[in-house]
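Data deposition worksheet. Section B asks for the primary sequence of the deposited chain exactly as it was used as input, without tags or linkers unless they were present during the calculation. Section C holds the resulting structure in token form. Section D is free text for depositor observations; keep each observation to a single sentence. Incomplete worksheets are returned to the depositor.
Section A, Depositor: J.P.
Section B:
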Amino acid sequence: MLPEAKSKDLLYVSDFDTNDVYIFSYPQGKLEGTLTGFKSPLGECVDKNNDVFITDELESEIFEYAHGGTHPIATLRELRYDPRDCSIDPTTGNLAVVNNAVYSDASIGVFLQARGKALQYATDLKPAFFGSYDGQGDVIVGGWVNGSALGSVELKKGAKSVRAFTLNESLSYPGGIKWDGKHLAVGDADTSIVYEFSIKGSAGAEVGETTLGGGGYPEDFCIYGSQLIAPTWFGSFSGAVLLYNYPAGGSPTKTIQNSALEYPFGAALSLHSAL
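Section C:
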């Protein structure tokens, strides 16, 4: 890690092929450092202290790093599960983890205040892909139902079990799910579109869509204000991180490319300016 990194806003990008996490200055895109030692780093999320949580699917662990830090400050374990994505509830500090399992359906693991042992909530998804807290402390997760049909579930705040959650838009392939501060943003990885949904009860009603030009592949993207940040390994910008105006979309406003990137998957933004 370069000495200057801690004093900058940092973009963390996990790479599914190299099994490393690359850290770039934001929005400049300069490589500031690399985190190594993972088996399969995938989803990422950031808490109110701008600590970064990185899920390691094959290690069955979630690692927490301080802004610009080079070693984990905490390690959470999922034991029987393969953690794929994560989200922080900004009101409670709880950490929700989207878990897959080899011999059972996926689950949502909730670590109270991002510590201790997770409370597990079974789903009928197999596998699950991505998930996010909304603005009410509820967790929404998308994936496949029985490996064949797209579906999503919701864990309401304080509930003891999940319930079905429906979207009034047909998706081709599960993409990332993020709360943008007002709407639930759900990516379709096949069409390079991120849809925005207004949540009403246990359903999402589409209110807009963001088309990512240049082959943007909205898997574990992140949103910061009027910017959508999408790692992509597909299309004309394969092996890059693309920045788009949000929710306008269109052509990327900036491209972050580096020879180290091969299959960039997850993205999370940790802000020094907010520390």
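Section D:
The first strand starts at residue 10 and ends at 15.
The mean pLDDT is 94.
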